[in-house]
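## Example record

The block below lists the input lines for one assembly entry, exactly as stored, with component labels intact.
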Amino acid sequence: DQQVKQNSPSLSVQEGRISILNCDYTNSMFDYFLWYKKYPAEGPTFLISISSIKDKNEDGRFTVFLNKSAKHLSLHIVPSQPGDSAVYFCAASARRGSGSEKLVFGKGTKLTVNP
Amino acid sequence: GAGVSQSPRYKVAKRGQDVALRCDPISGHVSLFWYQQALGQGPEFLTYFQNEAQLDKSGLPSDRFFAERPEGSVSTLKIQRTQQEDSAVYLCASSLSLSSADTQYFGPGTRLTVL
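Predicted structure tokens for the full assembly:
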């Protein structure tokens, strides 16, 4: 049973346009969400995070939106650049009282930004 | 500064062999995590240390998997009597502490292939 779902295996956008990557979760105990970017043969690189007490967090070209009632989050990249081409993983953790900060990951979405 | 390092980067083992995978976390990071990433999947949690204490090993798939971090720094993941289904990328991550918003930083991973 997948607790974090990324339903789009791939996404292709033109350079300069907006990229929107989506993620859904089922566990209402999740209270911290992260996006990681992964290039081939490298480990995941942290991109941006959001706590469940917020509904938006912005860092440069990257913005993450959280809709707790819908158990949905999205990552917006504006404007998209060819160097953004990578696999993006959504991850979540349940920090309150869990005693463990393990991350639960989605399967990833491969983003291709075309010049 | 130095990130998380893992060795070896690639390991080929014959079925039934024992393997040991090493992780050097970022200096001063209290928490250390191991994840397993199968082809086409997101990373899946294996085990977690706070300093030398193994606080969560709920993700270890069988008793053939063993992890240690005896001095609260370097960690080793050992797999005994390897099976073909153990073939995956093994990722190590570290974070600064157990405070509420610590990001996990990942190493490049060890790709294990069991023949």
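The mean pLDDT of chain A is 93. Chain A touches chain B at residues 4, 32, 34, 36, 41-46, 49, 51, 89, 91, 95, 99-108 (CB under 8 Å).
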